Amino acid sequence: MTFRSNIRHSALPTTVVWDPALTAYNFGPGHPMAPDRLELTARLAAALGLFDHEHVAVEPPEPATDVELHTVHSADYVAAVRRVSEDPTTPDEAHGLGTEDDPAFRGMHEASARLAGGSLLAASALLSGSAVRAVNFSGGMHHAARDRASGFCIYNDAALAVQRLLDGGVRKVAYIDVDAHHGDGTQNIFWNDPRVLTISLHESGLSLFPGTGFANEIGGPDAQGMAVNVALPAWTEDAAWLRAFHAVVPQLVGAFEPEVIVSQHGCDSHRLDPLTHLNLSVDGQREAAAAVASLASRYCGNRWIATGGGGYEVTGVVPRAWSHLIGMVAQRPVPVSTPVPEAWRSYVRERYGITAPELMGDGVDTWWRSWEVGYDPNDAVDRSIMATRKEVFPLHGLDPWFD
Description:
The chain has a single domain, classed as Histone deacetylase domain (Arginase, Chain A). With 403 residues, the protein is α/β, with parallel strands linked by helices. It is built from eleven helices and eight strands. One of its GO terms (molecular function) is histone deacetylase activity. Pathway: Ketone degradation; acetoin degradation. Residues 31-326 form the Histone deacetylase domain.
């Protein structure tokens, strides 16, 4: 398709999806998916001035309609969410509603639909030309399946955004998922759709939910090679993670030539996250966002929709990681040496009794070893990389050893 463009100056028009109403996505006290992480991110991003740039528009989303939700979710499932939303005392475990991971709560449908509406808003902004880039840090609910809730996810907003783009005339979309957990829901929704390349880098399913996402999951019969999975061993650090990303993602995105990138930036890969076993820093997560930004610039005319996702270290990690993401999307990257605004740190101290980090980075070296220096069969990460490359690279006309 031909994208409309309202660009009048060098900074790309950027939509940031935010409204305090998004914190209604709340599974209750003690649940890891604490809505505070959204409020703290918005507060930190505002304190850093990321919402104040002339080319940045902060837009509140409306709840997705049932018709919109039906583009990726079954009508029976949406109806089940509505029933549980109205009466949380009658769970529907057949649809994954009212489980330990996804407890029922009154208003669940509207809260989940609003979050989904945020990513639909982002996709519509790109299609209309009112924005070239967009970020919905409250989104990224990548476990939600066509007819079932899973892993804290009710409606799959990322899949909805991809489908909105396709329905709007976009020929090819690359979905890149860097959450610590496999992006199984999004992968499976587009399993047999050759217009969508889904790439997920995650902790191996041998040690982490949902137990899927291995190299041999490559897509349906009409979309062989369109599902790509890099299953990384527990305790993988920044350098190895970035090596894996750069050994797989740029090559496939270049071969696929998408018109838009949609990405999921769960920051639960951080070494302090209480639910996972990866060992990344905020600095490394920022590098991942920068790498996706570079791919959008190189292959997609800068068209990029970024979402949040997992991330359960609520005060020290999530707000910094997603403020970096907002900065990357808006072309106003925040240096890792930037002091965290004292007003924000005081707010965290007074409200949570926690001393927040002083800087926007963790003070680590994110240098990584390029794949071109050679494959090490004794390295577990290299073996994971090679397993993926052997499975999917030939299907894209790429050499798994040298490209």
